[in-house]
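Structure in, sequence out. Go:
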């Protein structure tokens, strides 16, 4: 079954936390950097802040009814839009879920400027964003 993308709803909050935790935890371990999140509890707190705010548009990627990826587009007014977070479950990476979510967010942005903060060591997503024309503006330390 092909990957599908739909609007996220509050029902997706726990799946969102699981995807965020697993994706970032594995990435941080693989690159031996300090953990972005130390527990599922941290991920649940982050996920709880992403739902119910009118200026945050969430999307989930599903494969056979299972949430495998999430992405959130924040309306930041005159500055345009911001992406945070965009994550795909480790077992589902490199299958097009991140790209499908990004396509949906770009469509929703409707030509508005889109900004994001990217870990320099994450070559997979850096390559994805580069294919879409995102350019590095500054390095954050």
């Amino acid at each position: 079954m092909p990957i599908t993308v739909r609007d996220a709803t509050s029902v997706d909050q726990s799946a969102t936390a699981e995807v965020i935790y697993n994706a970032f935890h594995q990435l941080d371990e693989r690159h031996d950097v300090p953990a972005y999140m130390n527990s599922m509890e941290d991920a649940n707190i982050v996920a709880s802040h992403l739902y119910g705010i009118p200026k945050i548009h969430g999307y989930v990627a599903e494969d056979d009814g299972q949430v495998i990826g999430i992405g959130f587009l924040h309306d930041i007014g005159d500055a345009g839009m911001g992406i945070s977070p965009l994550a795909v479950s480790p077992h589902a990476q490199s299958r097009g879920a991140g790209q499908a979510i990004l396509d949906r967010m770009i469509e929703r942005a409707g030509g508005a400027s889109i900004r994001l903060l990217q870990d320099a060591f994450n070559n997979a997503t850096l390559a994805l964003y580069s294919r879409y024309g995102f350019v590095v503006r500054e390095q954050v330390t």
